[in-house]
C-alpha cells in the first residue's frame, strides 16, 4: 500500500512538473509545484526519511534550475539552522551527563502522583518557556531530553504510551502556544516581517498577545493535555522525587552554567541583538570544548545525529524557493477568488480564511506559510471589509494548528530525538486539530468580534 502511494505521489509530481502552464502562470511555477508535491507528499507519508527527502528536493531544485543555488541552499545561511546544530549538541550533553533527568525531577518530580497531573505540569513548563526562550527549536531541543529522562524515572520507557504522550504534549504546547507569543516561533516572526516589509505595519508584542493568546494560546492548553491523556493512556506505578544528598558532578555544574548563560541571552535578545541561532551555536560549541565542555570531541562524529540539521535546511530552502519563484503568489491568486469572500459575512469569511491558512501550512509547511498568506492581506481586507491588521493576522489562525507533523519542523526534530514514530504523532496532532478547528476557531472569532478587531485596533 505504501509503495503504491509513493508511486502515485511521484507520478503526480512528474505530471505537474512537465505539464504546460495555464494562461498567466509561469513555467517555473509548474516545475516548482511539482517538486513541492514530491517533497511534501514524501514527508506526509513517510515515504523516505525526512532528511533524505529534503536532500533530494534540494538536489532536484538545483539540477532543474527552478531557482539559483543561493536561494535553494539559503536555509544553510539561516540562523535557524545553526540553532538546530547547536541545539543538537546541547541535547546530547543534557542526556549524556544526566542533567536532563535531574532537571526533570527538580521541576516536575512533585507532579508524579498521576499521569494527567504530570502531563499538565509538562505542558505548563513548555508554555512558560515560550515567554523566555524565543526559538521553538531551542525549546524542543532543551525539553525533549528532560521530559524523556523524567518518563524513564516514572516507568515509561521509550516507545511506551506514557513516554510518547508526555513528549508530544510538551512539544505541541511549546509550538502551538508559542504561535500566540510574537517572538516565540518562526512563523510569528515571518508574519511580522512580511507585514512590515509589504505593508509597513509593525506588529507589536502586546497587541499580538492580546489578539492571539487568549484563545489560540491559553484555551488550547486543556486540549493538548486531554488529547495526550486520551490517545496515550498510562498509569504511573511509582512516584519519584529528586534524590537528596546526591551532589551534581563537575560536568553537570559546567553544563548548568552554559545552559543558564544561553537561556539568559535568549531571553534578553531584544537588548543585545544576538540572534538565537548564534547563541545556540556558541553554547553547543562550549559543551564540546576540552576542559570547558562536558563531552569528548569524538562525540561530534559518534553521538550526534545530523538528520534534523539537513531536514530543517531543506524545509527552509523549500520556503525560499516557493517564495522566490512566485509559486506562493500563484497559489494565493488561485485560492482567494475561490473563497468568494463577502463584506458583512464576517464569520463565514473568518472560517474560510482560517481553513485556507491551515491548508496552506500543509502545502508549504508552517514557517513558509506567512510568505503565502501575508501578501494577500490587502485583497482579503478589501473583499471582507476588515482592517488590514485583521487580514494579516488570519495567517496565524492556520499556522497555530498542527494537522500533520511534517508541516512543523520542530515537531519532527523532537520526534526524531525521542524515537516517536510518524503514525503516533499524526494521531495526536489530528486529535488536537479537530476541536481546535471546530471549537476554538469559532471561539476566536467571538474574541476578535468582542475586542473590535475586524474594523479597528483592539481595545487594551
Helix content: 55-70%
Low-confidence stretches: 456-460
Number of helices: 24
- State the distance separating the first and last CA atoms: 54 Å
How much of the sequence lies in strands comes to under 5%
Please give the number of β-strands: 0
Main sheet: strands, sense, barrel: none
Q: What is the mean predicted local confidence, pLDDT?
A: 84
Order of helices and strands: HHHHHHHHHHHHHHHHHHHHHHHH
Shape summary: globular
Structural class: mainly alpha
Could you tell me the radius of gyration in angstroms? 22 Å
Summarize the structure.
This protein has 460 residues and is mainly α. It contains 24 helices and no strands. The chain has a domain at 77-307.
Can you describe what's shown?
The chain is mainly alpha-helical and 460 residues long. It has 24 helices and no strands. Helix 1 runs antiparallel to helix 2, helix 5 runs antiparallel to helix 17 and helix 17 packs antiparallel against helix 23. The radius of gyration is 22 Å and the shape is globular.
Amino acid at each position: 500500500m505504501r509503495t503504491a502511494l509513493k508511486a502515485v505521489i511521484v507520478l503526480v509530481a512528474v505530471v505537474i512538473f512537465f505539464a504546460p502552464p495555464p494562461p498567466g502562470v509561469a513555467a517555473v511555477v509548474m516545475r516548482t509545484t511539482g517538486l513541492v508535491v514530491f517533497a511534501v507528499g514524501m514527508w506526509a507519508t513517510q515515504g523516505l526519511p525526512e532528511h533524505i527527502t529534503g536532500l533530494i528536493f534540494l538536489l532536484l531544485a538545483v539540477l532543474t534550475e527552478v531557482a539559483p543555488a543561493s536561494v535553494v541552499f539559503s536555509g544553510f545561511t539561516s540562523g535557524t539552522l545553526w540553532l538546530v546544530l547547536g541545539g543538537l549538541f546541547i541535547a546530547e550533553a543534557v542526556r549524556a551527563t544526566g542533567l536532563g533527568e535531574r532537571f526533570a525531577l527538580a521541576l516536575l518530580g512533585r507532579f508524579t502522583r498521576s499521569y494527567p497531573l504530570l502531563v499538565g505540569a509538562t505542558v505548563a513548563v513548555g508554555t512558560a518557556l515560550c515567554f523566555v526562550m524565543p526559538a521553538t527549536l531551542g525549546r524542543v531541543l532543551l525539553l525533549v531530553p528532560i521530559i524523556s529522562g523524567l518518563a524513564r524515572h516514572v516507568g515509561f520507557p521509550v516507545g511506551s504510551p506514557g513516554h510518547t504522550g508526555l513528549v508530544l504534549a510538551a512539544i505541541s504546547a511549546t509550538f502551538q502556544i508559542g504561535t500566540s507569543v510574537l517572538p516565540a516561533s518562526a512563523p510569528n516572526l515571518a508574519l511580522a516581517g512580511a507585514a512590515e516589509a509589504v505593508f509597513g505595519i509593525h506588529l507589536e508584542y502586546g497587541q499580538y498577545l492580546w489578539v492571539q493568546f487568549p484563545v489560540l494560546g491559553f484555551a488550547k492548553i486543556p486540549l493538548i493535555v486531554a488529547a495526550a491523556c486520551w490517545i496515550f493512556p498510562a498509569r504511573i506505578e511509582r512516584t519519584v522525587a529528586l534524590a537528596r544528598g546526591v551532589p551534581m558532578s563537575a560536568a553537570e555544574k559546567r553544563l548548568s552554567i552554559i545552559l543558564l548563560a544561553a537561556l539568559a541571552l535568549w531571553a534578553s535578545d531584544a537588548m543585545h541583538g544576538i540572534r538565537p541561532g548564534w547563541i545556540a551555536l556558541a553554547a553547543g560549541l562550549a559543551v564540546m570544548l576540552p576542559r570547558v565542555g562536558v563531552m569528548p570531541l569524538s562525540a561530534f562524529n559518534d553521538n550526534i545525529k545530523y538528520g534534523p540539521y539537513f531536514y530543517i535546511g531543506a524545509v527552509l530552502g523549500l520556503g525560499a524557493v516557493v517564495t522566490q519563484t512566485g509559486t506562493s503568489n500563484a497559489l494565493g491568486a488561485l485560492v482567494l477568488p475561490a473563497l468568494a469572500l463577502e463584506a458583512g459575512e464576517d464569520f463565514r469569511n473568518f472560517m474560510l480564511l482560517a481553513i485556507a491558512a491551515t491548508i496552506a501550512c500543509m502545502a508549504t509547511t508552517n514557517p513558509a506559510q506567512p510568505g503565502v498568506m501575508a501578501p494577500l492581506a490587502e485583497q482579503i481586507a478589501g473583499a471582507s471589509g476588515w482592517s488590514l491588521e485583521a487580514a494579516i493576522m488570519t495567517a496565524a489562525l492556520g499556522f497555530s494548528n498542527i494537522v500533520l507533523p511534517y508541516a512543523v519542523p520542530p515537531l519532527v526534530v523532537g520526534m526524531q530525538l525521542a524515537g516517536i514514530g510518524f503514525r503516533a504523532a499524526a494521531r495526536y496532532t489530528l486529535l488536537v486539530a479537530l476541536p481546535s478547528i471546530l471549537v476554538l476557531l469559532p471561539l476566536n472569532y467571538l474574541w476578535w468580534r468582542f475586542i473590535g478587531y475586524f474594523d479597528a485596533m483592539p481595545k487594551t
